[in-house]
TrEMBL record:
Protein's recorded name: Class I mannose-6-phosphate isomerase
Keywords linked to the UniProt accession: Isomerase, Metal-binding, Zinc
Molecular-function GO terms, alphabetical: isomerase activity
Amino acid sequence: MTVGAGVAAATAYALPANQPPERFYRGGEQIARLRGVGRAQPRTPEDWVGSATTLFGEASLGRTVLPGGTTLAAAIEADPVGWLGEQHVQAFGADPALLVKLLDAGQRLPVHAHPDVPFARQHLGLGHGKTEAWLFLEPADVALGFSRDIAADELARWVEHQDVDAMLGAMHTLRARAGDAVLVPAGTPHAIGEGALLVELQEPTDLSILMEWRDFAIDGATDGHLGLGFDTALAAVERHGMTASQVEALRSATAATTGELLPAAASFFRAERTRGSATWDAGYSVVVCTSGEATMTSETGRSLRIARGSTILTAHACGVWDVKAQPGFEAIRCRPPAS
């Protein structure tokens, strides 16, 4: 039977790594260790898990290919209700409205920001911006938000002259711990620190405005402004200063938190941490196992073993999942926005 007949949507998949090659920053070894697959290829710091999204400017790179050769995007388009559920389709159509990545910062990432929905709609004709959230598996310092108001001409001057010290000197430092969940609203300037390993949830786009590219393997002057020019692109950056307490408030969960990790982000995406056996309601989701192992059994009879480093894609048509865990099991279930 075909994908459109609902067969693919009535099951679930254990997904292999999906790591676009030759990214402009280093990383990948921590993802390889998490997945237990040996050494990483050079410059593969991102694993696009259950992705119906392409890299910016690419026709297909970044999209998940399911067993049998069908892309996830095509499978969802053929059976949106089976994959996403009727309520989601009524709200968002055949758009899963979610992108999940594993990210391994083998070096500090450059200072950058992502546009919000109104900017992306006006300037790029897109329905999503790129609000994101970080679920830390390994600790790291991150530069997050400006600590004072920054004038437009000052920001433009920093970017033109690549005055990285001035940029970083005007930003807060958040010391993220393993287990923390941090929400990053679109527009917020940020730079993830070296050593971070995280599960990243985001709106399903690859829209980044680079303010820093010195010492990175990218021509930021050409490729850092989404083809809009910096005069336009930098208008998407939030230049208002944040207080230290406002930055701290973006940390919505810690290692002690189970259940919902991102309560303020439900209009963009949802994430739940499970420890031990559980029952998961029906729904499209990307599951990342961070420790231990368990057996997942759906009400349609599909059974999957999930262990540390596993990434599982589930469709709404699978129904309710019964998760029988071994000691030490922990997983993060990433889901689309509430509909």
